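Model the whole thing, not chain by chain.
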Amino acid sequence: MKLIISNSSNVPIYEQIKNQIIDQILKDDLKEDEALPSIRTLSADIKISVMTIKKAYDELEKEGYIITRQGKGSFVAPKNLELAKEEKKKEIEEHINKIVSISKIYNIDEKEVLDLFKYMFEGES
Amino acid sequence: MKLIISNSSNVPIYEQIKNQIIDQILKDDLKEDEALPSIRTLSADIKISVMTIKKAYDELEKEGYIITRQGKGSFVAPKNLELAKEEKKKEIEEHINKIVSISKIYNIDEKEVLDLFKYMFEGES
DNA sequence: ATACTGTTATATAATCAATATAACAGTTAA
DNA sequence: TTAACTGTTATATTGATTATATAACAGTAT
Protein backbone atom coordinates (compact mmCIF):
# COMPACT_ATOMS: atom_id res chain seq x y z
CA MET A 1 0.00 0.00 0.00
CA LYS A 2 1.29 3.42 -0.96
CA LEU A 3 0.87 6.10 1.68
CA ILE A 4 2.52 9.48 1.84
CA ILE A 5 2.80 10.87 5.35
CA SER A 6 3.77 14.44 6.10
CA ASN A 7 5.05 15.13 9.59
CA SER A 8 4.90 18.87 9.10
CA SER A 9 1.24 18.79 8.12
CA ASN A 10 -1.29 20.09 10.60
CA VAL A 11 -3.47 17.13 9.66
CA PRO A 12 -2.89 14.38 12.23
CA ILE A 13 -1.04 11.34 10.92
CA TYR A 14 -3.90 8.97 11.70
CA GLU A 15 -6.19 11.13 9.56
CA GLN A 16 -3.73 11.25 6.70
CA ILE A 17 -3.64 7.46 6.72
CA LYS A 18 -7.41 7.23 6.99
CA ASN A 19 -8.07 9.70 4.18
CA GLN A 20 -5.66 8.07 1.78
CA ILE A 21 -7.10 4.64 2.39
CA ILE A 22 -10.62 5.94 1.82
CA ASP A 23 -9.50 7.48 -1.46
CA GLN A 24 -7.96 4.20 -2.56
CA ILE A 25 -11.10 2.29 -1.69
CA LEU A 26 -13.27 4.71 -3.63
CA LYS A 27 -10.97 4.66 -6.63
CA ASP A 28 -11.11 0.86 -6.48
CA ASP A 29 -7.36 0.63 -6.00
CA LEU A 30 -8.42 -1.37 -2.98
CA LYS A 31 -11.22 -3.72 -3.91
CA GLU A 32 -14.00 -5.20 -1.83
CA ASP A 33 -12.80 -7.97 0.53
CA GLU A 34 -9.18 -7.20 -0.23
CA ALA A 35 -6.92 -7.45 2.81
CA LEU A 36 -5.31 -4.30 4.10
CA PRO A 37 -1.76 -4.60 5.42
CA SER A 38 -1.72 -5.69 9.05
CA ILE A 39 -1.28 -2.85 11.50
CA ARG A 40 2.13 -4.20 12.49
CA THR A 41 3.30 -4.56 8.89
CA LEU A 42 2.09 -1.11 7.93
CA SER A 43 3.61 0.30 11.08
CA ALA A 44 7.00 -1.13 10.12
CA ASP A 45 6.63 -0.08 6.48
CA ILE A 46 5.90 3.57 7.02
CA LYS A 47 7.62 3.90 10.40
CA ILE A 48 4.54 5.01 12.26
CA SER A 49 3.53 3.67 15.66
CA VAL A 50 1.23 0.65 15.76
CA MET A 51 -1.22 2.59 17.92
CA THR A 52 -1.48 5.35 15.37
CA ILE A 53 -2.22 2.85 12.59
CA LYS A 54 -4.79 1.21 14.84
CA LYS A 55 -6.50 4.53 15.44
CA ALA A 56 -6.78 5.08 11.69
CA TYR A 57 -8.15 1.54 11.14
CA ASP A 58 -10.58 1.91 14.06
CA GLU A 59 -12.06 5.02 12.51
CA LEU A 60 -12.22 3.41 9.09
CA GLU A 61 -14.22 0.58 10.63
CA LYS A 62 -16.53 2.95 12.53
CA GLU A 63 -17.25 4.74 9.25
CA GLY A 64 -17.96 1.50 7.45
CA TYR A 65 -15.04 1.40 5.05
CA ILE A 66 -13.30 -1.68 6.42
CA ILE A 67 -14.03 -4.70 8.57
CA THR A 68 -11.52 -5.86 11.17
CA ARG A 69 -11.37 -9.26 12.85
CA GLN A 70 -9.00 -10.15 15.64
CA GLY A 71 -6.50 -12.70 14.50
CA LYS A 72 -7.44 -12.33 10.85
CA GLY A 73 -6.83 -8.78 9.78
CA SER A 74 -8.64 -5.89 8.13
CA PHE A 75 -10.59 -6.10 4.90
CA VAL A 76 -12.27 -3.66 2.59
CA ALA A 77 -16.00 -3.61 3.37
CA PRO A 78 -18.70 -3.93 0.72
CA LYS A 79 -19.05 -0.31 -0.13
CA ASN A 80 -22.13 1.79 0.03
CA LEU A 81 -21.16 4.43 -2.46
CA GLU A 82 -24.41 6.33 -2.20
CA LEU A 83 -24.07 6.73 1.53
CA ALA A 84 -20.48 7.87 1.20
CA LYS A 85 -21.57 10.33 -1.46
CA GLU A 86 -24.18 11.82 0.84
CA GLU A 87 -21.59 12.29 3.57
CA LYS A 88 -19.28 14.02 1.15
CA LYS A 89 -22.02 16.26 -0.14
CA LYS A 90 -22.46 17.51 3.38
CA GLU A 91 -18.77 18.28 3.52
CA ILE A 92 -19.07 20.20 0.28
CA GLU A 93 -21.98 22.15 1.69
CA GLU A 94 -19.88 23.21 4.64
CA HIS A 95 -17.17 24.49 2.34
CA ILE A 96 -19.69 26.41 0.29
CA ASN A 97 -21.13 27.86 3.47
CA LYS A 98 -17.76 29.24 4.44
CA ILE A 99 -17.21 30.63 0.96
CA VAL A 100 -20.59 32.36 1.03
CA SER A 101 -20.05 33.96 4.41
CA ILE A 102 -16.56 35.16 3.49
CA SER A 103 -17.91 36.59 0.24
CA LYS A 104 -20.67 38.49 2.02
CA ILE A 105 -18.39 40.04 4.61
CA TYR A 106 -15.73 41.03 2.12
CA ASN A 107 -18.10 42.08 -0.62
CA ILE A 108 -16.66 39.63 -3.07
CA ASP A 109 -18.80 39.25 -6.15
CA GLU A 110 -20.80 36.06 -6.60
CA LYS A 111 -19.85 36.02 -10.25
CA GLU A 112 -16.18 36.26 -9.45
CA VAL A 113 -16.36 33.26 -7.13
CA LEU A 114 -18.44 31.33 -9.60
CA ASP A 115 -15.94 31.93 -12.38
CA LEU A 116 -13.08 30.86 -10.18
CA PHE A 117 -15.10 27.79 -9.36
CA LYS A 118 -15.71 26.84 -12.98
CA TYR A 119 -12.10 27.48 -13.84
CA MET A 120 -10.80 25.25 -11.09
CA PHE A 121 -13.23 22.48 -11.95
CA GLU A 122 -12.05 22.32 -15.49
CA GLY A 123 -8.43 22.98 -14.66
CA GLU A 124 -7.60 19.49 -13.52
CA SER A 125 -8.35 16.44 -15.57
CA MET B 1 -18.16 45.30 21.92
CA LYS B 2 -20.46 42.38 21.23
CA LEU B 3 -18.79 39.00 21.17
CA ILE B 4 -20.40 35.60 21.30
CA ILE B 5 -18.14 32.89 22.70
CA SER B 6 -18.92 29.20 22.52
CA ASN B 7 -17.08 26.97 24.94
CA SER B 8 -18.24 23.82 23.20
CA SER B 9 -16.87 24.92 19.85
CA ASN B 10 -13.77 23.25 18.56
CA VAL B 11 -12.58 26.68 17.46
CA PRO B 12 -10.29 28.04 20.18
CA ILE B 13 -11.69 30.97 22.16
CA TYR B 14 -8.88 33.31 21.12
CA GLU B 15 -9.71 32.59 17.48
CA GLN B 16 -13.41 33.19 18.01
CA ILE B 17 -12.55 36.58 19.48
CA LYS B 18 -10.11 37.36 16.70
CA ASN B 19 -12.48 36.36 13.92
CA GLN B 20 -15.40 38.35 15.29
CA ILE B 21 -13.27 41.45 15.71
CA ILE B 22 -11.99 41.12 12.15
CA ASP B 23 -15.55 40.85 10.90
CA GLN B 24 -16.54 43.97 12.82
CA ILE B 25 -13.60 45.91 11.45
CA LEU B 26 -14.42 44.89 7.90
CA LYS B 27 -18.09 45.70 8.31
CA ASP B 28 -17.01 49.10 9.65
CA ASP B 29 -18.74 48.43 12.96
CA LEU B 30 -15.31 49.23 14.32
CA LYS B 31 -13.86 52.21 12.52
CA GLU B 32 -10.29 53.24 11.85
CA ASP B 33 -8.49 54.55 14.95
CA GLU B 34 -11.36 53.52 17.19
CA ALA B 35 -10.23 52.13 20.54
CA LEU B 36 -10.89 48.51 21.28
CA PRO B 37 -11.84 47.62 24.84
CA SER B 38 -8.76 47.15 27.02
CA ILE B 39 -7.78 43.54 27.48
CA ARG B 40 -8.66 43.74 31.17
CA THR B 41 -12.07 45.30 30.51
CA LEU B 42 -12.93 42.79 27.81
CA SER B 43 -11.66 39.99 30.03
CA ALA B 44 -14.04 41.07 32.79
CA ASP B 45 -16.93 41.64 30.36
CA ILE B 46 -16.92 38.26 28.69
CA LYS B 47 -15.36 36.32 31.55
CA ILE B 48 -12.38 35.13 29.60
CA SER B 49 -8.84 35.14 30.92
CA VAL B 50 -6.73 38.23 30.25
CA MET B 51 -4.07 36.08 28.61
CA THR B 52 -6.55 34.65 26.15
CA ILE B 53 -7.71 38.14 25.15
CA LYS B 54 -4.09 39.16 24.79
CA LYS B 55 -3.41 36.25 22.50
CA ALA B 56 -6.31 37.32 20.27
CA TYR B 57 -5.10 40.94 20.22
CA ASP B 58 -1.51 39.88 19.54
CA GLU B 59 -2.59 37.96 16.47
CA LEU B 60 -4.78 40.81 15.30
CA GLU B 61 -1.76 43.09 15.49
CA LYS B 62 0.48 40.60 13.69
CA GLU B 63 -2.06 40.44 10.89
CA GLY B 64 -2.30 44.20 10.66
CA TYR B 65 -5.85 44.73 11.86
CA ILE B 66 -5.07 46.66 15.03
CA ILE B 67 -2.23 48.63 16.59
CA THR B 68 -1.39 48.18 20.27
CA ARG B 69 0.64 50.53 22.43
CA GLN B 70 1.67 49.79 25.98
CA GLY B 71 -0.06 52.10 28.38
CA LYS B 72 -2.50 53.40 25.74
CA GLY B 73 -4.50 50.52 24.43
CA SER B 74 -5.43 48.92 21.13
CA PHE B 75 -6.79 50.73 18.12
CA VAL B 76 -8.20 49.77 14.76
CA ALA B 77 -5.45 50.07 12.15
CA PRO B 78 -5.89 51.95 8.89
CA LYS B 79 -7.23 49.16 6.81
CA ASN B 80 -5.99 47.88 3.56
CA LEU B 81 -9.19 46.39 2.25
CA GLU B 82 -7.67 45.22 -1.00
CA LEU B 83 -5.00 43.29 0.81
CA ALA B 84 -7.53 41.72 3.13
CA LYS B 85 -9.65 40.79 0.13
CA GLU B 86 -6.73 39.08 -1.52
CA GLU B 87 -6.09 37.07 1.62
CA LYS B 88 -9.70 36.00 1.74
CA LYS B 89 -9.74 35.08 -1.92
CA LYS B 90 -6.91 32.68 -1.19
CA GLU B 91 -9.02 31.16 1.57
CA ILE B 92 -11.90 30.78 -0.87
CA GLU B 93 -9.58 29.11 -3.36
CA GLU B 94 -8.58 26.56 -0.76
CA HIS B 95 -12.21 25.72 -0.08
CA ILE B 96 -12.89 25.35 -3.78
CA ASN B 97 -9.84 23.15 -4.07
CA LYS B 98 -11.21 20.80 -1.48
CA ILE B 99 -14.61 20.77 -3.13
CA VAL B 100 -13.06 19.94 -6.49
CA SER B 101 -10.97 17.07 -5.15
CA ILE B 102 -13.90 15.60 -3.24
CA SER B 103 -16.06 15.87 -6.34
CA LYS B 104 -13.52 14.09 -8.51
CA ILE B 105 -13.01 11.21 -6.11
CA TYR B 106 -16.71 10.68 -5.50
CA ASN B 107 -17.82 11.36 -9.05
CA ILE B 108 -20.07 14.19 -8.02
CA ASP B 109 -21.30 16.20 -10.96
CA GLU B 110 -19.90 19.67 -11.51
CA LYS B 111 -23.37 20.90 -12.35
CA GLU B 112 -24.78 19.54 -9.12
CA VAL B 113 -22.19 21.38 -7.08
CA LEU B 114 -22.63 24.54 -9.11
CA ASP B 115 -26.37 24.51 -8.55
CA LEU B 116 -25.92 24.01 -4.83
CA PHE B 117 -23.48 26.85 -4.93
CA LYS B 118 -25.86 29.25 -6.66
CA TYR B 119 -28.68 28.23 -4.39
CA MET B 120 -26.68 28.88 -1.23
CA PHE B 121 -25.45 32.21 -2.52
CA GLU B 122 -28.93 33.48 -3.09
CA GLY B 123 -30.36 31.80 -0.02
CA GLU B 124 -29.13 34.36 2.48
CA SER B 125 -29.72 38.05 1.99
C1' DA C 1 0.37 59.58 43.32
C1' DT C 2 -3.32 57.18 41.14
C1' DA C 3 -5.54 54.70 37.86
C1' DC C 4 -5.73 53.33 33.93
C1' DT C 5 -3.23 50.98 29.83
C1' DG C 6 -0.22 46.63 28.02
C1' DT C 7 3.85 43.12 29.17
C1' DT C 8 6.19 39.35 31.02
C1' DA C 9 6.89 35.27 33.71
C1' DT C 10 5.36 31.34 36.18
C1' DA C 11 2.48 27.58 37.33
C1' DT C 12 -1.31 24.64 36.61
C1' DA C 13 -4.68 21.85 34.15
C1' DA C 14 -6.99 19.60 30.32
C1' DT C 15 -6.94 17.75 25.86
C1' DC C 16 -4.99 15.76 21.70
C1' DA C 17 -1.57 13.42 18.98
C1' DA C 18 2.03 10.26 18.83
C1' DT C 19 5.20 7.07 20.66
C1' DA C 20 6.89 2.75 23.07
C1' DT C 21 6.34 -1.48 25.37
C1' DA C 22 4.24 -5.41 27.21
C1' DA C 23 0.89 -8.67 27.96
C1' DC C 24 -3.17 -10.74 26.18
C1' DA C 25 -6.24 -13.15 22.66
C1' DG C 26 -7.83 -15.06 18.11
C1' DT C 27 -6.43 -17.61 13.57
C1' DT C 28 -3.95 -20.61 10.82
C1' DA C 29 -0.81 -23.80 9.10
C1' DA C 30 3.34 -26.66 9.79
C1' DT D 1 0.53 -28.43 19.80
C1' DT D 2 3.65 -25.01 18.69
C1' DA D 3 5.05 -21.09 15.94
C1' DA D 4 3.99 -17.16 13.54
C1' DC D 5 1.05 -14.49 12.19
C1' DT D 6 -3.28 -11.49 13.14
C1' DG D 7 -5.71 -7.61 16.38
C1' DT D 8 -6.59 -5.85 21.52
C1' DT D 9 -5.82 -3.68 25.74
C1' DA D 10 -3.39 -1.20 29.23
C1' DT D 11 0.13 1.81 30.83
C1' DA D 12 3.39 5.46 30.63
C1' DT D 13 5.64 9.19 28.56
C1' DT D 14 6.35 13.12 25.52
C1' DG D 15 5.14 17.39 23.23
C1' DA D 16 2.01 20.83 21.65
C1' DT D 17 -2.04 23.62 22.19
C1' DT D 18 -5.51 25.92 24.74
C1' DA D 19 -7.03 28.19 28.77
C1' DT D 20 -6.70 29.61 33.36
C1' DA D 21 -4.80 32.40 37.46
C1' DT D 22 -1.67 35.38 39.70
C1' DA D 23 1.92 38.54 40.37
C1' DA D 24 5.20 41.77 39.24
C1' DC D 25 6.70 45.03 35.88
C1' DA D 26 6.32 49.10 32.62
C1' DG D 27 4.20 52.94 29.87
C1' DT D 28 0.52 56.91 29.70
C1' DA D 29 -2.28 60.46 31.43
C1' DT D 30 -4.52 63.39 34.73
